[in-house]
Amino acid sequence: MEVGASSQNLPSQSIVLMNPGNARLKILLLSAYDADSHQYWRKGLVANFPEHQWTVLSLPGRYFSWRIRGNSLTWAFGEQVDKLTAQYDLVIATSMTDLSSLRGFIPSLGNIPTLVYFHENQFDYPATDRARKNVEPQILNIYTALAADQLAFNSQYNFDTFIAGASALLKKLPDQVPANIEALLTAKSQVLPVPLTRHKNGTSETLPQIAWHKYQAQSIESRPLLIVWAARWEYDKGPERLLAIVRQLERTNIDYRLCIMGQKFRQVPIEFEQLQQQFAHRLDQFGYAQSTAQYRAWLHSADIFLSTAVHEFQGLAVLEAVTQNCLPALPKRLVYPELFADNCLYSSESDILTEAKNAVALIAAQRLSLSTNSVNSPDLNLYWDNLKPAYQQLMSATISCKTKQ
Q1: Which of 80, 216, 235, 326 is the most buried (most CB within 10 A)?
Q2: Is the torsion defined by CA of 84, 148, 93, 389 positive or negative?
Q3: DSSP assignment, residue 104?
């Protein structure tokens, strides 16, 4: 399935385009677990289709188990019920939405064409002693997908792991499982990434001043290498792998500085405390950036953006960093090989120490390419102005598909 694919991945009856004159649509947008990446997507969607009338309902990205099971209850019997029972031309919901229950509570929603967008799926979340796989969120993913008229996934990796995970789970169920579920899900699915918002790269004069400004005018040969790591401070972003890489870097003769950013939660993995204690002499930034402008200032100044994720379906932070001219140093797993060439990837290993050595070898090679001006920067074409037509096609196809049923 190709990025931005449309008619070739949709059922034949959904190819007919509606809304040829850009008629104004009334759209209900449901973001049931409105984490940062979900907010980024929904705000971009609304901003890039100002011709439509949007009603947006969102719930905070916290209390995961309750939120994904309880969002239909919260919306259908809470203060927002009047908005759910209004008339709409289209419903767009994230995969965290308990769509089958919501349609049961609000029957009129069952008559409205509905597109479900998958930022992630619940089949590819790494299980540990702290977070084991839970079947209920996986079942909810399947039910929501079946209740929708069309599905979109932010990457091929997301789609593949969803279909494989759903098929594997259905095979484990004891009896009375319909045989056509995988075919039904595949027929109404396509891959359509979260588009990036264009930002001007800015200059040291227009971006806020950060601790790195003293190195701003120096060449790579005469200053430290600035490495940025930015992700949620949770175990699925690989903090133990980050710590191993930094320890391995310290054994080399590479002069480097670290900028570690990202969102913290109530429980922070111990590796971040160890990083702060053991490598305070390397840290120029440690913690959430004070503003979006400051975050972009760090990216604009950085040489390399490092990821250690063990759970990633598109990697918006990586993509944003690349637009600010960072070289990505990424593990060769998850969605990354789908988006980046080998010169951006280090070999992924189950042995953390071996993987750390691979990552440091890539960082050393990238530093050399920066010093010799032989950098092959990734060429991303995932901006809204490129992907907006595919989104328009998908919304129109969802409406057309429903009207032909």
Answers
A1: 326
A2: negative
A3: H
| Residue 83: count of CB within 10 angstroms of its CB | 13
Is 209 buried (19+), middle (13-18) or exposed (0-12) by CB count in 10 A?
Answer: exposed
Give the per-residue pLDDT at 2: 33
Burial 324-342 (b: 16+ CB within 10 A, else e): bebbbbbbbbbbbbebbee
Query: Assign residue 236 a region: left if phi > 0, alpha if psi is -120 to 50, beta otherwise?
Result: alpha
DSSP codes joined into one string, 2-50 = -BT--GGGS-GGG-SPP-TT-PPPEEEEEEEEE-HHHHHHHHHHHHH-T
Q: Establish if 376 belongs to a structural domain.
A: no
Q: How far is CA 56 from CA 13, 34, 103, 163, 396, in A?
A: 29, 11, 17, 29, 19
Burial class (CB in 10 A: 0-12, 13-18, 19+), 45: buried
Q: pTM for the whole thing?
A: 0.89
Average pLDDT over every residue of 256-267: 91
Q: Are residues 38 and 61 in the same domain?
A: yes
Q: How far is CA 299 from CA 15, 35, 150, 318, 319, in A?
A: 41, 21, 36, 10, 11
Structure tokens at 102: 């919501």
The total of structural domains in the chain comes to 2
Structure tokens belonging to residue 23:
């008629």
Element holding 57 (H helix, E strand) = strand 53-60
Tell whether 378 is covered by a domain.
no
Asked if residue 273 and residue 251 are part of one domain, the reply reads yes
Average pLDDT over residues 330-347: 96
CB of 72 closer than 8 Å to CB of 98: yes
The arithmetic mean of pLDDT across residues 195-219, rounded, is 69
How high is the mean pLDDT of the chain? 89
Task: Say what the pLDDT of residue 219 is.
Answer: 83
Rounded (5°) CA angle 87-90-92: 120
Q: What is the pLDDT of residues 225-244, one digit of tens each?
A: 999 999 999 999 999 999 99
- Whole-number pLDDT of residue 405: 65
Q: How far is residue 227's CA from residue 64's CA, in Å, rounded to a whole number?
A: 31
φ, ψ (nearest 5 deg) of residue 15: -80, -25
Q: Classify burial at 392, counting beta carbons within 10 Å of its beta carbon; exposed 0-12, middle 13-18, buried 19 or more.
A: middle
Residue type for position 317: A
Question: In terms of domains, do 231 and 361 share one?
Answer: yes
